[in-house]
Amino acid sequence: MTSRERVARLVKALPKVYPGAHCELDFKNPLELLVATILSAQCTDKRVNMVTPALFAKYRTAKDYARSSPSTLETMIRPTGFFRNKTKSIRAAAAAIETEHGGRVPDTMAKLHALPGVGRKTANVVLGNAFGKDEGIVVDTHVVRLSHRLRLTGETDPEKIERDLMKLVPREHWTNWSHWLIWHGRRRCFARKPDCRRCEIFSLCPSGKKFIRSGEAREPEALT
How far apart are CA 156 and CA 191, in angstroms? Predict the structure, then answer.
């Protein structure tokens, strides 16, 4: 089976496995998602979601963040880690949004990526989930791991992995593709001990058999 054929089957199987897959960061508007995504760097979505209710209640606009006290913001986001750098990124991005975009989060890759502290991954998250635009594929640690295990890329750099995936995955599935792989990575295809015995897409995974000892369990059928 070629990589393209594998992806074609996965695009049919994964929505059945995870019909409710979505971004697990809590947000109500593009600004909230942008801030939450910046906070999620090297931090779990669960922990970010514990911090953001109070944060979003205090800071409602880009101007609020831009004019915020760095020490106060640092204290509020401290549980997410790397709070000093994240504070600088949030305040700088918010200032640019306020002065260059009239206080509204821009909805193009070029303009989002140009914001201080906003990389391509963050821009993809915002575009796909706040604006419904499939401009790229979010590549986080789960997507990296599963892309390798599914043998969809030999690259290690996230942007190169994204380019490989964009060639294989139909554009209309780019945003959901990340959700499906992230959900599968969090619920089944763990980094150290993937749960291959109960994996719904085992038959589509070229790496699965190496994780299962011979005769340990029946190989599950994939959803098709």
Answer: 16
List the one residue out of 174, 118, 167 whose CA is nearest residue 143: 174
The pTM of the full predicted model, rounded to 2 decimals, is 0.91
pLDDT (0 to 100) of residue 212: 72
Q: How many CA atoms lie within 13 Å of 214's alpha carbon, on the beta-carbon side?
A: 0
The greatest distance separating any two alpha carbons of the chain, rounded to the nearest whole angstrom, comes to: 63
CA-to-CA dists, residue 64 to 98, 108, 123, angstroms: 10, 23, 21
Overall size of the chain counted in residues: 224
For the chain, the 3-state helix, strand and coil shares in percent, each to the nearest 5, are 60, 0, 40
Q: How far apart are CA 135 and CA 139, in angstroms?
A: 13
pLDDT band at 216 (very low <50, low <70, confident <90, very high): very low
Q: Which are the catalytic amino acids?
A: 121, 140
Q: Mind listing the pLDDT tens digit for each residue in 97-118?
A: 999 999 999 999 999 999 999 9
Q: Which two tokens stand for residue 149?
A: 């295990």
Q: What separation in angstroms does the CA of 215 have from each of 72, 210, 219, 224?
A: 57, 12, 9, 25
Separation CA 116–CA 127 (nearest Å) = 16
Vertex 217, ends 215 and 219: CA angle to 5°? 105
